[in-house]
Amino acid sequence: MRIDLHTHTDRSDGTTSPTELVRNARAAGIDVLGLTDHDTTEGWAEAAQAAEREAVRLVRGIEVSCRYAGAGVHLLAYLPDPDHPDLVAELERVLDGRNARLPATLERLSALGIEVEVDEVRALAGDAAAMGRPHVADALVAQGVVRDRAEAFDRFLGPQGPAYVNRYAADLVAMVGTVAAAGGVSVIAHPWARRHRHDALDADGLAALAAAGLAGVEVDHQDHDPATRERLRGLARELDLVMTGASDYHGTGKVDHELGCNTTDPAELERLLSLAAEASQAAGRVVPEVVGG
Ligand SMILES: [Zn+2]
Ligand SMILES: [Zn+2]
Questions:
Q1: For 256-277, b where at least 16 C-beta lie within 10 A, e where not — what string?
Q2: Ligand nearest 169 Cα, by number?
Q3: E strands of the chain, at which residues?
Q4: Looking at CB atoms within 10 Å, which of 71, 79, 235, 274 has the fewest?
Q5: Which ligand is nearest to the CA of 36?
């Protein structure tokens, strides 16, 4: 059984529709697929229909932009009630923050002599719930300023770049609580990715988050080298956290993240799903079912 629990569509910054994502997953031999667009559930309904047709089991989730001890952290929230008021309000705040960041980013690029219009970015963003840096990066690629998104982030848009603008992100500990209140389970995405600062997500930090209700950590991710994965695996075992693995697929929006390039062990998925069942019961919320397959 092949399980890929972290993927994106064009409802955030991926390049395929939810339907195409599910089809591509089927073609890649994926049996269980996690859909986790950034800060939105907009792709859920379409993906669920496609999952029924393609007989792929779909685990609906969200990759929530959070902050912990001053650093950006991505939190994978699986199977929460998408209508929980606190969750809805917080996702709205994050999406508003991202849209508000765009004009400021374009101003900074302009100061560097690079003119990008909001309309160019909007055209490239298509059906996305929010226009974000990946779409600005696409505009820079279209103009021939950079070769690809990665270069755009390295040279301009990343935290060290001259066009970087800070934006609102949810408090990580509070969000773990909100996800639980919405009947879902939380997994930290790529906690030790090279490009993110992760000083606060050390053994003590992860222990504190586990105590606050964190269910798991994403161990097998392209941004973790083999030694990092081994260390994280050891720590997850110590803290009794679920270990997941996933591609972080973005269609053609991110190279070297093909569907199924990392996968989750079936026993770990079962642990995650039983924690999710407990969470939904404890919260008394109506949560999305795992459909398809
Ligand atoms: Zn991420
Ligand atoms: Zn992601």
A1: ebebbbbbbbeebbebbbebbe
A2: 1
A3: 3-7, 32-38, 57-68, 71-78, 170-171, 185-188, 216-220, 242-245
A4: 274
A5: 2
Task: At 90, list the tokens.
Answer: 């917080």
Three-class secondary structure assignment of 119-185: HHHHHHHCCCCCCCHHHHHHHHHHCCCCCCHHHHHHHHHCCCCCCCCCCCCEEHHHHHHHHHHCCCE
Ligand 1 center from residue 81 Cα (angstroms): 21
Distance 36 CA to ligand 1 centre (A): 9
pLDDT value at residue 219: 98
pLDDT score for 196? 66
- Going from the C-alpha of 54 to that of each of 60, 75, 79, 223, the distances in angstroms are 16, 28, 20, 30
pLDDT along the chain (293 residues), means of 10: 98 96 98 98 98 98 95 96 98 91 95 96 88 93 96 94 94 98 98 80 95 98 96 98 98 92 98 98 96 91
Confidence (pLDDT) at 70: 86
In angstroms, what is the span from residue 255 Cα to ligand 2's centroid?
Answer: 13
Q: How confident is the model at residue 164, as a pLDDT? A: 94
How many angstroms separate the alpha carbon of residue 174 from the centre of ligand 1? Answer: 18
pTM assigned to the model: 0.91
Cα of 115 to ligand 1 centre, how many Å? 28
